[in-house]
Structure formats: structure tokens, C-alpha cells
Amino acid sequence: MIFEQGPIRPPSEAESLLLRLTRNCPWNRCQFCTTYRGETFSRRTVEEIKSDVDTVSRILDRLREMSVSLGYNGEINLQVLSDAYQTGDYYVIHVASWMYRGGRNIFLQDANSLIMKTSELVDVLEYTREKLPTVDRITSYARSKTLLRKSPGALADIRRAGLNRIHVGMESGSDAVLKFINKGVTSKEHIEAGRRVVEAGISLSLYVILGLGGRLWPEDHILETARALNQINPDYIRLRTLAVSPGTPLYDRLMAGEFAEQTEDEIVAGERILIEKLQGISSEVVSDHMLNLLEEVGGRLPESKEHLLGVIDRYLSMPGADRLNFRLGRRAGLYRWLDDMSDPVRKARVEALARRLSSEGRLDGTLSSLRAQMLY
Ligand code: SF4
After folding, report:
1. Taking 80 as the threshold, does the pLDDT of residue 241 lie above it?
2. CA of 89 relative to ligand 1 center, distance in Å
């Protein structure tokens, strides 16, 4: 029993059941993005999607039977999960892991499920809710441009049918940056689409890429992004940090000298200005990705603003050697938090690594290639 799944989901959906509504990305032209490069967008029919929901439901029935035969009355507990792993069947394991955690969240793949006709999306959402009644949250990615094609009434219908949250790659609020990276949307459109989602009562999660303005538009990127976010007041602002991956058009432009990256310290200084300029909003700031240097930059505005700025100031006020030590330790996976530097053993290991890479003339190259290896 198999059902179709796509390649990615947001980190916050790690415990969600993944259901594929469309394949790949209908835009697929953002200059920094590798996720669907070379893949062709296609739609799935409502029947295909419902058939996948039925398959999940049948797998759940099988797991409940296993549970009953073990004397657990249908409960998907650790023993049933362990037996599910014994089957070696990816789909059984995925559904068992999902149900073991409560079976509450579903993420709809791939990059832009809102491109479906509203009536079809509503049909799929209602069917999924009916067949999988433990679910209380369904979320999806969408593009701002696509959201603008949905009327406020259509978005309200989609919310009523059961879509609780939309994740949008805003990336920047600067028109210069959006044009350069070929996002296919303007700042004004991001703002209008974001407000429409919020007004429809759907939770909105916006992704911002720190450093995306590079050396060309460092201030414009930060100030215009803060301006746009202040007008939208999304539920979540999820920070990412630019890593230019080989094979992307942005990498080619970097190599051709048409783009220049900021240093990590410049990016963190920009992050500070962004946080400082966020005003009059109640968004939750989240740094839930390894690409971000400072994972501690997280909390709800406005009450956590001092904490967020404090974390950044703590890093920026460290001596240069310590900042380098933290950057290398974080990128090499030896540190997660700033406090990890207080461990003398770990700090000494990072210092030894830095000395070795410096003596081989590979320190800067290693730092940037470690960053580039971390996917969006
Ligand atoms: S960033 Fe999102 S919209 Fe842009 S190409 Fe990648 S998946 Fe598509």
C-alpha cells in the first residue's frame, strides 16, 4: 500500500503526515532554489488524491488490527510502532509514526497547493477531514501570486474546509531583490496576499532569507522586508540565511561577479536591524534552520524583542576570534547554541580545527562550503 509523496516539507512539519496534491513547483524560476530544478510541474486529480487518503486510512486500519492482536485495544503505542518498523515498509512506518504522535497534523505537498481550483481543494480538504478524523491542523506552501488569484471569499471557503496554515516564501520585501532573484512577485503583491490570508483567518508563516540582498542591496533588503512584515503582521516570521548552492542561476551570477555575498557578521548585523525595525506586530520570530547562525533568535513580538536583540548583541560583541570560533563550530556541527562555547573541550576542538584549516589555507572555503551543504 503506497501513496505519493514529494521531496520536502517545512521543518515545523517534521511530525506531519505528508500528502501530495500537486507535483513540483509551477514557478520553478527563483534564482537561489534547487528543490525542484529540472522537475516539471503537474497536477494530480482529486480522485488520485482521495485514493491516497484512502490508502492512509487502510494503513491505519491495519495498524489498529496489529494493536488489537497485541492486546492494546487499537492504540498506536510504542510497541505497535516498533512492529511497524519491523515491516520495513516506508509507508506503514510513516503513518505509524504520525499516529503514534497523535495523528494531528497534515502537510500538503508540493510547492504551491493553492494553485488547485478552489472547489477541488475544498473537496480534498473536506474528504481528508472526514476520513482522518484525528487531524486538527492542515497546512500547505503557496506563492503570493497564486494567493492573489483567490478572492477573500474563496480563502474563507478554504479555511472553513480545513486548511489552517499557509507557508509562503516571501524571501524579501525589496522589489530590487525580488526582481534580481526572479521571485515573480512584487513587495506590494506579497503584502496584499499576506493580508488576505490573515483576514481569511488562516495562520500565515512567512519565510525571509537573511543576506539575500548581498552586497548589492543590503539595506534595502532589510528595511523593505521589515516594512512589508509590519504591514502584514503574519503569525510566524521564519528566518533563513542565504547559502548559494552550485547549480543555481544565483551561483552562476556569483561566479560571474554579478552578485557578492555578505559576510556572516554582516548578515547578523542586518538581522539585528530587521528585528529592531519590526514594530506594531505580534508575530512569532523563528530561526528553525541550521543555516541560521543564531538559532536562539526566537520569540513572540513585541515582548521578546529585547531577548532577540540581546542574543544578536551577545554574538556581535564577542571578540573576533570567538565569533570565528562560534561560526566554525556551528557550521561543523560542534555547537548549536552560543552557550555551547562555554564547554572548554568543545571550544578547544573547534580552535584546533580552525588552526589546521588556517595552516592549509582552507578556513574561509570550508566555512562557505559547509554553509552551502545545508539545504533550504
Ligand atoms: S523558492 Fe519556492 S516558488 Fe521559488 S522556485 Fe523554489 S519552490 Fe518554487
Report:
1. yes
2. 31
Calculate mean pLDDT across residues 319-347. Answer: 95
pLDDT band at 375 (very low <50, low <70, confident <90, very high): low
Per-residue burial over 304-331, b = 16 or more CB atoms within 10 Å of its CB, e = otherwise: bbeebeebbeebeeeeeeebbbbbbbbb
Q: What is the pTM of this model?
A: 0.94
Grid cell listed for 152? 477573500
Choosing from 30, 244, 250 the residue with most ligand 1 atoms within 8 A of its CB, the one to mutate for a pocket test is 30
Domain ranges for the chain: 1-130, 142-317, 327-376
The CATH class that applies to domain 142-317 reads alpha beta
Nearest ligand 1 atom to the CA of 33 is 6
Predicted confidence (pLDDT) at residue 376 exceeds the cutoff of 70:
no
d(Cα 174, Cα 209) in Å, to the nearest integer? Answer: 12
For 2-54, write each residue's pLDDT tens digit: 999 999 888 889 999 999 999 999 999 999 999 999 999 999 999 999 999 99
Residue 283 φ then ψ, to 5° = -70, 155
Which of 82-96, 170-184, 340-354, 359-373 bottoms out in mean pLDDT, i.e. has the lowest?
Answer: 359-373
CA of 20 to the centre of ligand 1 (A): 16
Protein residues whose CB sits closer than 6 Å to any atom of ligand 1: 25, 27-30, 33, 35-36, 111, 143, 169
Ligand 1 center to 252 CA (angstroms): 18
